[in-house]
């Protein structure tokens, strides 16, 4: 077989490989972050019911109108098996009232019941059948439907549908709270309950003999007293052989039938037929109480849902927080004898009531309700638990981080320390701290165990690779660690770093001196029991450095720190004095902790300084919440001379930033990248990120498009000029990026690479040129406008002509005097071990790119698909250099 390479490219996706515009999204960073798992915010209102299709997809109903922040078909949705929204399910105006019952037919059609009176604008009273795509099934005709809500549905083997609820009439015929419909939606008149129930039926179950178990708020059936529990024969009459006695003393809400015919009932009752049964009981098939089921003191509040596992254990959800004296917030699992199953450990459980539980074939448990968190993790109204009650992080979790990234720190090896309040990254647990590889994938060699119990605001990496982390936490991996800890390079706690009782409040800033001593700032006033007003210097073992003389320290919290080359320390925050001397939100300290009087900011800033960066010439860029400096208008950013006076050569345009600047970084060419909650700079649209020229003007060459959709909290500059961004966003320039992203940078100011005028290649004597970014390669072009610093051109070697690509071909870079690393795009752009030459011959079909490093700059080509099993013979689609070429005309 020939060894043939085919580079499959599309005319609709031409990309010019030679140059990546600064400020654009770096698509090679965490390629898994494509929102295929959703963005993690879930439903904004209660989930009341769920049902699983044969293909594993999940139909969800309730009171919601949004999922993952996107308006959808109100009150019903279909999720893929990973918890993301199934966009193939018809979107429209949805239901105008709550969906409370769902049943799926064997043919995939969906029966829906609830409080609604219309669907997608079509009048329909409380029951409807949908096709599998969510459209209305016009063959299902319930006439005028039900006059009040439907709360439960069961589809029988013959296609008929049992309906329970709070209604009196079905299609104009009296059917109080219980009815059966034919498969076409018409009323089954052979099932006649006469006067039916005196109150609402909340849940129903059907025995194998066709008899119906009903529970709810009724106290009679067709004139016969029967309290909140009944069995109805297949013709609609009351089954008097089912002996409930005095029944329940309060509402029944959920019923389930075991394989042996015994009946489980949950609700708000505390007795059944005079016997204690606190919100859950099991009945024998004749209606008597099963005394072998012993739930002890039962639940402290109502039970809304009971699901039976294949092993006979019971998953129970409701409004309770206690079972048999033990804490269990809104969910519990019981053994088949009614005792608590202690192998099921939900931790702190859900934050609010559970309305529905559903057990998947693999044993995992779907849970819906009104909650917004589970065991401290943000989970909006629908989640999936593993069989041991741990949260299934891959279900409905976003790609990227599932919540805010507050800090980013880049190690010398290019790996990224991310801190924040998150609990997952790409579905993998990581509590408030994680380390990512340079390509944005998770570094699994970094294991912080249980991590932090609250947010990490700041981190710094020592020369030995150990990591200092500070924030609002009080524990790390289960051990007390008040607001500061040091980790070994593998993520474990460094027990040689002893903070004692630590700080009395949170840490916001950390800087490490060249001698290894650690400057820490924050909102604290003591450290290990000693006074430390908002700033402290620690020795390398964590003890307080007594030689650092702050006097009475700062008057209020410190937000930002920079250690200067001469050992002095720039400090920004919300303070107005230092050791009794006025210093309004910015100060410079000597290396011994005393105030540097040579830096005099006069009346300083009128609002908090959030971030500081210092230029090589000693000038200071400050960003924050302020609108003036020393009485001169400066909206959220200013440059200050080294003596503390305002640098008037740094002009802000019209109005500066319109909202807070949270983070600032400096490029080596003097340009300034700022990020925060702002949306404009100098009258220009700049959604949460902008780059300024060295004189303070807006840099229009930084192409951030529509920018970030929410606030940016942190910026870090990579050695290759790219920018790591952390925050609480879900997208950048319309591309899914959950709370962390990498943007393209430029390193022209640091590079000595001579620009190349344009790309070209000669084929059969004809020269082909690039006419510019995002355009087709055309023959004999003039006026090429591509200026690049690294030549990312990739060509083919071997016997080539315009009709075939012959065997013995390889991918080849034409860049010189550089280092190379071939990457496997299909494996998160991971390096291909041993392939560090400009020439690469793939051994298998795949998608590959090349990372080129030269003179301190680094860039990566787009991914090229190599197919060894086919060839291409259309001359107008000649693939070369990673581009589409037009053939001769």
For the record, give the distance between the C-alpha atoms at the N and C termini, rounded to a whole number.
Answer: 33 Å
Shape: elongated
Number of strands: 83
Instruction: Report mean pLDDT, rounded to a whole number.
Output: 87
Protein described:
The chain is mainly beta and 889 residues long. Helix content is 0%, strand content 36%. It has no helices and 83 strands. The strands form 32 sheets. Strands 76, 77, 79, 80 and 81 form a 5-stranded antiparallel beta sheet that branches. Strands 1-2-5 form a 3-stranded antiparallel beta sheet, with no helix packed on it. The chain is elongated, with a radius of gyration of 33 Å. Residues 1-19, 748-789, 797-809 and 868-889 have low confidence and may be disordered.
Provide keyphrases for this structure.
889 residues, mainly beta, five-stranded antiparallel sheet, three-stranded antiparallel sheet, disordered N terminus, disordered C terminus
Brief digest:
It contains no helices and 83 strands. Strand 61 (661-666) and strand 62 (672-676) form a beta hairpin.
Task: List the topology elements.
Layout (H helix, E strand, L loop, with lengths): L46 E6 L5 E5 L3 E2 L2 E2 L4 E4 L19 E6 L5 E5 L3 E2 L2 E2 L3 E4 L19 E6 L5 E5 L3 E2 L2 E2 L3 E4 L19 E6 L5 E5 L3 E2 L2 E2 L3 E4 L19 E6 L5 E5 L3 E2 L2 E2 L3 E4 L19 E6 L5 E5 L3 E2 L2 E2 L3 E4 L19 E6 L5 E5 L3 E2 L2 E2 L3 E4 L19 E6 L5 E5 L3 E2 L2 E2 L3 E4 L19 E6 L5 E5 L3 E2 L2 E2 L3 E4 L19 E6 L5 E5 L3 E2 L2 E2 L3 E4 L19 E6 L5 E5 L3 E2 L2 E2 L3 E4 L19 E6 L5 E5 L3 E2 L2 E2 L3 E4 L20 E6 L5 E5 L3 E2 L2 E2 L3 E4 L19 E6 L5 E5 L3 E2 L2 E2 L3 E4 L16 E4 L2 E5 L6 E3 L14 E4 L12 E4 L5 E6 L5 E2 L7 E2 L5 E9 L2 E4 ...
């Amino acid at each position: 077989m020939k060894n043939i390479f085919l580079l499959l490219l599309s005319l609709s996706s031409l990309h010019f490989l030679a140059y990546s515009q600064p400020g654009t999204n770096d698509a090679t960073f965490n390629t898994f972050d494509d929102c295929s798992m959703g963005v993690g915010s879930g439903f904004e209102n209660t989930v009341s019911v769920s049902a699983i299709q044969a293909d594993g997809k999940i139909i969800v109903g309730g009171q919601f109108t949004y999922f993952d922040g996107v308006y959808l078909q109100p009150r019903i949705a279909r999720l893929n098996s990973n918890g993301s929204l199934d966009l193939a399910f018809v979107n429209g105006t949805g239901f105008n009232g709550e969906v409370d019952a769902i049943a799926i037919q064997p043919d995939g059609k969906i029966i829906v019941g609830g409080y609604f009176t219309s669907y997608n604008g079509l009048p329909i009273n409380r029951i409807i059948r949908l096709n599998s795509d969510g459209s209305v099934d016009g063959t299902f005709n319930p006439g005028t439907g039900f006059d009040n809500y439907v709360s439960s549905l069961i589809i029988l083997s013959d296609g008929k549908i049992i309906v329970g609820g709070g209604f009196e009439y079905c299609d104009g015929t009296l059917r109080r709270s219980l009815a059966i419909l034919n498969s076409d939606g018409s009323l089954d008149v052979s099932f006649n309950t006469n006067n039916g129930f005196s109150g609402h039926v909340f849940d129903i179950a059907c025995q194998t003999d066709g008899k119906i178990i009903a529970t709810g708020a009724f106290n009679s059936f067709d004139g016969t007293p029967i309290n909140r529990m009944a069995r109805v024969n297949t013709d609609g009459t009351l089954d008097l052989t089912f002996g409930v006695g005095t029944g329940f003393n309060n509402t029944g809400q959920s019923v389930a039938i075991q394989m042996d015919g015994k009946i489980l009932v949950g609700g708000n009752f505390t007795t059944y037929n005079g016997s204690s049964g606190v919100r859950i009981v099991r009945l024998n098939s004749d209606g008597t109480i099963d005394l072998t089921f012993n739930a002890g003191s039962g639940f402290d509040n109502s039970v809304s849902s009971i699901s039976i596992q294949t092993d006979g254990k019971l998953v129970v959800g409701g409004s309770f927080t206690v079972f048999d004296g033990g804490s269990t917030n809104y969910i519990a699992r019981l053994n088949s004898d009614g005792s608590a199953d202690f192998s099921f450990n939900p931790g702190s459980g859900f934050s609010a009531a559970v309305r529905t539980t559903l057990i998947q074939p693999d044993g995992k448990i779907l849970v819906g309700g009104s909650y917004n968190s589970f065991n401290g993790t943000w989970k909006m109204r629908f989640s999936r638990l593993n069989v041991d009650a741990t949260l299934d992080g891959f279900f409905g979790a976003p790609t990227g981080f599932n919540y805010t990234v507050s800090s980013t720190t880049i190690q010398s090896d290019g790996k990224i320390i991310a801190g924040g309040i998150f609990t997952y990254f790409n579905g993998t647990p990581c509590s408030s701290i994680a380390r990512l590889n340079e390509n944005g994938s998770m570094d699994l060699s970094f294991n912080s165990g249980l991590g932090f119990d609250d947010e990490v605001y700041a981190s710094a990496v020592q020369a030995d690779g150990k990591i200092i982390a500070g924030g609002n936490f009080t524990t790390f991996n289960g051990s007390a660690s008040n607001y500061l800890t040091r980790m070994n390079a593998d993520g474990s706690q460094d027990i040689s770093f002893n903070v004692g009782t630590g700080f009395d409040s949170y840490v916001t800033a950390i800087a490490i001196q060249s001698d290894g001593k650690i400057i820490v700032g924050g909102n604290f006033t003591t450290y290990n029991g000693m006074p430390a007003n908002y700033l402290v210097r620690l020795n390398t073992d964590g003890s307080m450095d007594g030689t650092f003389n702050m006097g009475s320290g700062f008057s209020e919290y410190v937000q930002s720190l920079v250690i200067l080359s001469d050992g002095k320390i720039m400090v920004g925050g919300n303070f107005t004095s230092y050791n009794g001397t006025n210093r309004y939100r910015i100060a410079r300290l000597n290396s011994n902790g005393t105030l540097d009087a040579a830096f005099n900011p006069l009346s300083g800033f009128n609002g908090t300084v959030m971030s500081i960066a210092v230029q090589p010439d000693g000038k200071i860029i400050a960003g924050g919440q302020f609108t003036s400096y020393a009485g001169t208008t400066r909206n959220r950013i200013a440059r200050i001379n080294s003596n503390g006076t305002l640098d008037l050569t740094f002009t802000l345009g019209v109005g500066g930033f319109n909202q807070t600047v949270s983070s600032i970084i400096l490029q080596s060419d003097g340009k300034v990248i700022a990020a925060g909650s702002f949306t404009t700079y100098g009258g220009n649209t700049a959604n949460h990120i902008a780059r300024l020229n060295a004189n303070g003007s807006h840099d229009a060459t930084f192409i951030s498009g529509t920018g970030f959709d929410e606030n940016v909290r942190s910026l870090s500059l990579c050695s290759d000029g790219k920018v790591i961004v952390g925050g609480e966003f879900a997208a950048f320039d319309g591309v899914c990026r959950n709370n962390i992203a990498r943007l393209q940078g430029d390193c022209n100011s640091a590079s000595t690479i001579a620009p190349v005028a344009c790309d070209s290649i000669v084929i059969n004597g004809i020269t082909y040129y690039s006419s510019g970014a995002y355009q087709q390669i055309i023959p004999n072009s003039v006026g090429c406008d591509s200026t690049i610093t690294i030549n990312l051109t990739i060509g083919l070697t071997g016997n080539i002509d315009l009709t075939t690509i012959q065997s013995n071909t390889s991918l080849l870079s034409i860049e010189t005097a550089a280092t190379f690393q071939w990457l496997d795009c299909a494996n998160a752009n991971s390096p291909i071990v041993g392939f560090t030459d400009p020439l690469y011959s793939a051994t298998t079909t795949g998608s590959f790119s090349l990372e080129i490093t030269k003179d301190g700059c680094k860039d990566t080509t787009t991914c090229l698909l190599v197919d060894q099993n086919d060839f291409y013979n259309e001359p107008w689609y000649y693939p070369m250099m990673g581009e589409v070429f037009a053939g001769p005309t």
